[in-house]
Amino acid sequence: MAQIVCLTANFHVEDFSTTASILVANTSAMDQRDPETYAIIGAAMEVHTVLGHGFLESVYHDALCHELELREIPFQREVPFPIIYKGVRMESMYRADLVCFGSIVVEIKALQRISGGEESQLLNYLKASGMQRGVLLNFGSPKLLYERMVWNYEE
User: Fold this and answer.
1) Do 2 and 151 form a contact (C-beta atoms < 8 A)?
2) Which strands sit side by side in the sheet containing 2-8, from one edge to the other?
3) DSSP-assigned letters across all residues of the chain
4) Residue 38, Cβ density class (10 Å: 0-12 exposed, 13-18 middle, ≥19 buried)
5) pLDDT tens for each residue of 83-138
6) How many Å apart are CA 24 and CA 16, to the nearest integer?
7) What's the whole-model pTM score?
8) What residue numbers bound the domain in which 104 lies?
């Protein structure tokens, strides 16, 4: 059974799969339960505060990497995830913007609003990587928008 937990800045939650159950928690509890994700979102808030909205995604990507370094948050850029289909590794690969703390996939966007496509993209990264936590950051609106996903899959 798959379970997706999606926390958003404005508490808007969408169903990503017919087999998924969605749980929502408040953000004040999140910082206590998941300090690593909270640290990433805090770094992103600083980038958005300094730069505002309106730049290309690559500018936010570079600025966030710099902020993560300043905060001594470990990360890797452009991490490839292989796709396995029926036991065969495909030539195509997903490439996540960042992986922080070795276990959190971070996807960066600079769009006016997030659609289900961006959320599905992060979900697919989690499936392909075997990682359970992910953060979607959108720098393209007047306020930083973020969604935190937790993917648990048990057969």
Assistant:
1) yes
2) 21-23, 2-8, 145-153, 133-138, 104-109, 88-100, 75-85
3) -EEEEEEETT-------TT-EEE---HHHHHHH-HHHHHHHHHHHHHHHHH-S-S-HHHHHHHHHHHHHHTT--EEEEEEEEEEETTEEEEEEEEEEEEETTTEEEEEE--SS--HHHHHHHHHHHHHH---EEEEEE-SSSS-EEEEEEEEE--
4) middle
5) 888 999 999 888 999 999 999 999 999 998 888 888 888 998 998 888 999 999 99
6) 14
7) 0.77
8) 2-153
For 69-79, the pLDDT digits (tens) are 999 999 999 99
Report the domain count for the chain: 1
Q: Which residues contact 47 (CB under 8 A, 6 or more apart)?
A: 60, 63, 64, 67, 139
Q: Taking Cα atoms as reference points, which of 124, 150, 120 lies closest to residue 135?
A: 150
Locus of tokens 């992060």: 122
**Residue 70: how many other CB atoms lie within 10 Å:** 10
